[in-house]
Amino acid sequence: MPTTPHTLPILLAHRTLAGARKHGAMSDEAISSLVNAAGIPPVLLAESGARITARQYAALYALLIEQLDDECIGFLSRPLQRGSFALISRSMLSAPSLELALRRGAHTFRLLQHDLAMHCVRDGELSGFALEARHTGTGSEAFLLEMLARVFWQMLAWLNRGRLPIRRIDFSFAQPAYAASYSAIFPAPLQFNQPVTAVWFDAAALQAPVRRTEEELRAALRHAPGNVILPRPGEHACSDRVKIILRQSEPDWLDLDAVAKCIHVSTSTLQRRLALEGTSFQSLKDELRRDLAIERLATSKVPVAQLAVELGFADATAFNRAFKLWTGSTPGSYRRR
């Protein structure tokens, strides 16, 4: 079965590096070396429309943690030393339910740092957790909040054997420029400029028992942070199926109705399920074609005209226009980097 590549905007790499730059923890030369070690050409940092693979991003994140000895990569007033999230995970592991695991994790996190408040929240049939920066206006709390929202969701999902659908995410900041890439990170409806950052689940889902062992935790920690940062199989259940079907239909590229028939649902049902994951059919198709184009330009010598046909464009001109819209440069100039 063909795989579906994932890419992320270079702006996300800049945001990730901001903590290391903030207090002069790393020089520009050291950051350039780190970026290169992650497999990212440093020249891409100057290209506003450039994109990197999810694997490159995970490598960058892991190298930052190692270099800074800080699992919050410079965004807190003092380092959250390596092993902190392992400690939080172990505090959650022996809880009888996901809700109690969440309470224990929030308590342990509060003991380890003083920049963020974390607490459990409830709203009717929804439950979850909220994160609040104690010191706002630093310009970096938005990235920190979205990073921790994903980390703690992934912890809970892992304790539930990998499955814990998000019903909604509230963010206390304005929608960032790279919000179009959020669907790869948060498969749920998003709301911005809310009173607090909060991740919401069905309240009943948090009553499920913890289904993991210490041995499984040790194995999972060996693959961190990649297994937290990168999208996992099944995380975007409907979106993943759509992308796989589209990938298999290349170069014909099935339309919405045809994909719905492949999944054995109506077109409206498919659209509704994708909306619950914070995306749409056209967005998924564009993301997949963009990521395949970037991958093939970087790893093959396929002529641009042939690549346009493979990706379902009418001609090379249409492909050039779309690619420039996606990345800010033409396929030819992107390949020459």
Please provide the count of β strands.
7
The biggest beta sheet is recorded as: 5 strands, mixed
Shape: globular
> Helicity level, as a percent range?
40-55%
- What is the number of helical segments per DSSP (H or I, 4+ residues)? 15
Q: Averaged pLDDT, please?
A: 88
Count of domains: 3
Topology as a string of helices (H) and strands (E): EHHEHHHEEHEEEHHHHHHHHH
Report strand %.
5-15%
Keywords: DNA-binding, Transcription, Transcription regulation
Organism: Paraburkholderia pallida
Protein name: AraC family transcriptional regulator
Domain HTH araC/xylS-type: 240-337
Characterization of this structure:
The structure is a single chain. The chain is α+β, with helices and mostly antiparallel strands and 337 residues long. It has three domains: 7-79; 84-217, no CATH class; 237-335, Arc Repressor Mutant, subunit A (Orthogonal Bundle). It has helices at residues 10-22, 28-37, 54-68, 84-93, 98-112, 141-159, 214-221, 226-229, 237-249, 256-263, 267-276, 281-299, 304-310, 316-327, 331-335; strands spanning 7-9, 51-53, 116-123, 126-133, 168-170, 190-191, 197-202. The strands form two sheets. It has a five-stranded mixed sheet. A hairpin with a 2-residue loop joins strand 3 and strand 4 (126-133). Helix 9 packs across helix 12. The longest helix has 19 residues, at 141-159. It is globular and about 60 Å long.
